[in-house]
Amino acid sequence: DLGIVARIATRVVVMYAGEVVETGPAEQVFRSPRHPYTRGLLACIPIPGRTERGGRLGVIPGLVPSLIGTQQGCHFADRCQIAADICRAGPVGFAQGTAVGHHVRCLRADALDAPTTPLGTA
Questions:
Q1: Using CA atoms, how far apart are residues 63 and 33, in angstroms rounded to an integer?
Q2: pLDDT(82) > 80
Q3: Averaged confidence pLDDT in the chain
Q4: CA gap 59, 53 in Å, rounded
Q5: CB 21 within 8 A of CB 95
Q6: 28-38 per-position pLDDT tens digit
Q7: Sequence-separated (6 or more) residues with CB below 8 Å from residue 91
Q8: Dist. CA 112–CA 58, nearest whole Å
Q9: Which of 10, 45, 83, 121 could join 58 via S-S bond, C-beta 3.0 to 4.6 A?
Q10: pLDDT band at residue 120 under the 50/70/90 scheme
Q11: What is the sign of the dihedral through the CA atoms of 39, 45, 47 and 50?
Q12: What's this model's pTM, rounded to 2 decimal places?
């Protein structure tokens, strides 16, 4: 339950397909997510008073990759709306996020528009 995590955690680690994709102070990760998967997760959370009962929730399009064998590049690349060839080419290390201690495993995080724009809403 990400709502509870946001209220009680001081640090957050977001994982996708067995790999840490974003980590940092909970306030920073929830307020300014820098990885497309983190943004997709947050876009899927129903918002009381704004999400219509029985209405459609956000989705993250695509399928989770196979966790068997070796995967090259970003594990989220095949589902990512901003992925480029470089994302699939090789290892993706951590880069500084929006605050001290906030790190993101994304080569194209700077290509994202304003941090609050939801991805994968349908």
A1: 21
A2: yes
A3: 86
A4: 16
A5: no
A6: 999 999 999 99
A7: 73
A8: 18
A9: 121
A10: very low
A11: positive
A12: 0.83
What pLDDT does residue 113 have?
Answer: 61
Q: 22 CB contacts (<8 Å, ≥6 apart)?
A: 12, 13, 14, 29, 33, 34, 35, 37, 38, 97, 102, 103, 104, 105, 106
Q: What pLDDT does 77 receive?
A: 95
d(CA 50, CA 28): 23
- Give the list of residues 6+ apart from residue 59 with CB closer than 8 angstroms, or none: 44, 120, 121, 122
- pLDDT, tens digit (0-9, with 9 covering 90-100), for 40-69: 999 888 877 777 888 888 889 999 888 888
